[in-house]
Amino acid sequence: MEKSYKLINSGSDIQIAYPLNMSDDLIAALEAARKNRSFVTITSGNMETGESWGDLYDSKGRIGLSRGNQYLFPLLVSFKRDDYDEDLEEEIDKSYDFLSELPTQDIAKYLNKHHLDVDEVLDCGGSIIGSIVAVQTGLARTKVAYKHPTFKGKDFSKENIKIDTETFTTECKTTSDKNDEVKIRKKTEKKFVLFIGGKVYSRHDSSEDLYSFLKANKQINLLN
Predict the structure, then answer these.
(1) Hey, CA dihedral for 100, 106, 111, 117, is it positive or negative?
(2) Closest C-alpha among 93, 130, 117 to residue 5
(3) For residues 130 and 19, is the Cβ–Cβ distance under 8 A?
(4) pLDDT for the residue 94
């Protein structure tokens, strides 16, 4: 069983188990971030080729450890998500998952504006980490702690992106209380669209949301 993992001393009787295919440099970067309680931005991707997948969700937070009797497994403790009580029909805890789509500098501004500490917006649990091709640490200022030797980020160059708008019209049915008359009302919405390589990559309610999303994508692909 021990041959399936790279085992790291945790300071207790139970060792930390990292995937066997993780490089020693990557493990060292994750361990340093864990011990220093650094905020991290993780770029997931193909660990053989170094090609980034560009996923924003579950990419930011702190490195924690799972509980276990045999091994401790490294986790990414990311932002709190919606927790809804169906019996009470109300939201139990505020969600901060929207911060995943922001660059770290904007996350730092949000926390400062609302007088929040990082721990207040992070979840209690986390997800097992793996398939990592880059690690950055810090919030207002970031630095690259690890980069795959053949790292290749998604192409967010000016030549490969295009920003446009789309208009959507939807029909909404309304009923009058007086005579139960059903009326159809048309609602028009404007969306700001990001194209990558000629294909739709994302749609946003405002240009501000789009540019924050674009900046976060550039950051996770080491283009900042």
Answers:
(1) positive
(2) 130
(3) yes
(4) 82
pLDDT in tens, 174-185: 666 566 666 667
Say if CB 101 and CB 212 are below 8 A apart: yes
Query: pLDDT tens-digit profile of 84-103?
Result: 555 555 555 688 989 999 99
DSSP string spanning the chain?
A: -GGGEEEE--SSSSEEEEETTS-HHHHHHHHHHHHHT--EEEEEB-TTT-BB----TT-EEEEEE---SSEE-EEEE-B---EEETTTTEEEE---GGGGGS-HHHHHHHHHHTT--HHHHB-SS-EE---EEEEEE-SSS-EEEEE-TT-B-----TTTEEEEEEEEEEEEEEE-TTT--EEEEEEEEEEEEEEETTEEEEEESSHHHHHHHHHHHHHHTT--
Q: At what angle are helices 207-220 and 104-113 packed, to 10 degrees?
A: 120
Contact in structure between 204 and 210 (CB atoms under 8 Å) = yes
Report d(CA 77, CA 56) in Å as an integer: 14
pTM of the model: 0.83
Q: What is the pLDDT of residue 2?
A: 47
- Would the CA dihedral through 189, 109, 42, 151 be positive or negative? positive
Q: How far apart are CA 184 and CA 173, in angstroms?
A: 5
